[in-house]
Please model this.
Amino acid sequence: MKTALIGAALSAATLSASAGGLVIAEYQLGDHPNGNLNPPPYGLRLDNILGAGASTLSIDHHNDTVLTVYDDNGTLSINISGTLYGGQLDGMGGYVSAASYAVDFTYSASVVASGGGWIVNGIDAANSGTLTNLDDNSVITLYTTGTPETFLFLPDDHRLHTDANDWVGRGWITDQTNGSDPLGGTRDWLFTATEIPAPGALALFGLGGLVAGRRRR
Model:
């Protein structure tokens, strides 16, 4: 029985696998407090896509958006998925109209480890995703733009000014498959992140407590 228990815990402690490969890290995302259009706070800005002029989407409203880093036999990828909330801004700290959007964006090309985190280099149509309006099921497809790095996810305290190594993600977005950006305004990720402990680490912690408890008895 003890052997089976230890085997199960060690199995849980290994990196979990998925269609994207092995999960090597996972983070809970949040709005960045120092976005240029705050209030309202946001984690994704999409000017001239959700309406004419400035538009932003909050991550904190639903608080279920996660960034996951995968390793598929040495090929890294990053997925951002969850539910965002917002829309076209009214210029008074609110929205002209707001909706909830399911986001599913994957960086699957040119992802490299750098600076203790990960960056994405260059424009590639494989780095793309969808934003689905949950009220009417309309879908916007998004791609990367900007050079030389199109996305950075680093523990570098970017624009937080806390003198800490806090995680921040930022990257530039367009609705054009070739990476061009003719719309004017700004479209980019800007979010904070907190690492989610790996299930395996929790399993080992629980196993250690169980073994210690048995020894005390």
About this structure: The chain has two helices and 14 strands. The first strand starts at residue 17 and ends at 18.
